[in-house]
Amino acid sequence: MFSSVHSMSLHGINVREVSVEADVSEGGLPVFEMVGFLGSEIKESRGRIRTALKNSGFFLPPKRITVNLSPADQRKSGSHYDLPVAVSLLTAMGLILPEILSDTVIAGELSLSGKVLSVKGILPMVLHSREKGYKRFILPLENAEEGGAAPGIEVIGVQSLNETLELLTGERKPEPVHIDIGELLKIRQRHGHDFCSIRGQKAAKRAVEVSASGMHNILLVGPPGGGKSMMAKCIPSILPALTEEECMEITGIHSIAGILGSGVVTERPFISPHHTVSSQALSGGGSIPKPGDISLAHRGVLFLDELPEFDANTLEILRQPLEDREIHISRASGNYTYPADFLLAAAMNPCKCGYYPGQRCTCGEIGVKKYLSRVSRPLLDRIDIVSYVDEISFDELNDDSVKEECSETIRARVTEAFEIQKKRFKDMRIRFNSEMTGDDIKAFCRLGEKEEELLRDSFNILGLSARGYHRILRTARTIADLDHSDNISCAHLSEAISYRTTGKGIWDV
Q: Are 232 and 138 in a shared domain?
């Protein structure tokens, strides 16, 4: 008897339909074979599925059993085909009516005991199933909260193969799982780091606020112990709450990467890889590429501490994603594209010892140049804001009379700037000032005569590139938004230009 069950396959962040077909026939020698351009983990699943069926009280008949995952020209990988294969076999054996499965999609891994285990990429699969018109999705109970975040489709979690059979035969009628993303996002978790714990550093804090307001890339430069890393770690605490759309995007990426756990992501990601990270771990990769750190930071912050200590080739990988806001990976198995729209925050010392240009510096001019050359000019040119973080004095550390602004206060101003940009770009594909193209800059960053003269002089004196010129205007537009100004003034432009002088000109050594 022939049967077919609907499932899904993952190709990067894209989802494709797969038909799990089973045929149990009398002719030929007793054999259980699986075909359809299968990955090694699927080929190994035959023994797992057979044992799971046996331990659940079902025995495969001594007949010729063939399972095909269609279409055969698309490579399949992952363990989520176990449950649909088992259901397809039970249907072919006459235990489940085929018509019950016509509008149902199934995914899940099986243990030898028949327990249904969690799998990766559930949310993208459920969303794609809904788009294709399927009414129901059966998945592992551990993934139910994640899958239940998708509205418009019944999501039912099961714990075992027997539960699945009872569900499909009508013996069990559980309530579908539905998660209200809007309600979850209203409950904002308090971030572990707050700006009120950072003493002094008003200029650097202002730079971070401008960076967060327009999602501009930022580099903090200064001696060790000045608070560079702490300020970067505070950035998520001043970013506005996620929208439902962003929540679904981030959850889908983390689910495909296999780091989601249960539930959905309700806070903006903060990804901080160690400087020994490989280029593959940063960009994504493997024989079947998974999202890397730059994709896991999508809609959040990628923090690179001790920037010059990263491998030079690894850092250069960032250049294309910083421009395109996505990463393209080519492998023998196909071409993959992952989103990579993140705020890059980086921190570094101005030299190896960390104390240039002070008298304590022991590196010498050649040593400083060698250290700074680890960060290439093309990469530096893609950073909108460079701010120098000074050493903090004893008096600043111990002056309790000064009340530092907390993250909540700063976040209110950042949120207002977000709303201004949302209105400005509501009919466009971009969302933040940092994403404006040349044509957008002409439309939204018009300058008066004084402002144009100031920018012309700065362009010639600083030797700016076309990219640097555009980045100054984008940053100035954000500063004007924070000031609730429709026009960019000389003050806004001057502040934006100051962020291009690369921290007291240390690169001009």
A: no
Structure tokens at 434: 């940092």
Q: What's the structural domain count of the chain?
A: 2
Taking 70 as the pLDDT cut, the residues of the chain under it are 188-192, 262, 401, 502-509
| Contact between 20 and 5 (Cβ < 8 Å) | yes
Q: Which domain holds residue 215?
A: 195-508
Same domain? For 162 and 238 the reply is no
| pTM of the predicted model over 0.85 | yes
How wide is the angle at C-alpha 152 spanned by C-alphas 147 and 158, nearest 5°?
35
The H-or-E segment that residue 155 falls in is strand 154-158
**158 pairs with which residues across the strands?**
140
Whether residues 109 and 222 share a domain: the answer is no
Name the residue with tokens 């460079």. Answer: 386
- Tokens read off for 278: 């490989």
Burial of 105 (0-12, 13-18, 19+ CB in 10 A): buried
Backbone angles phi, psi at 440, to 5 degrees: -65, -40
Closest by CA to 21, choosing from 98, 124, 78, is 98
Distances (CA, A) of 323 to 12, 358, 431, 471: 21, 35, 15, 12
pLDDT of residue 504: 46
CATH of the domain at 72: 3.30.230.10
Tell me the CA end-to-end span of the chain in Å, nearest whole number. 79
Spatial contact of 271 and 302, defined as CB atoms under 8 Å apart: yes
184, 225 Cβ separation under 8 angstroms: no
Cβ atoms of 231 and 238 closer than 8 Å: no
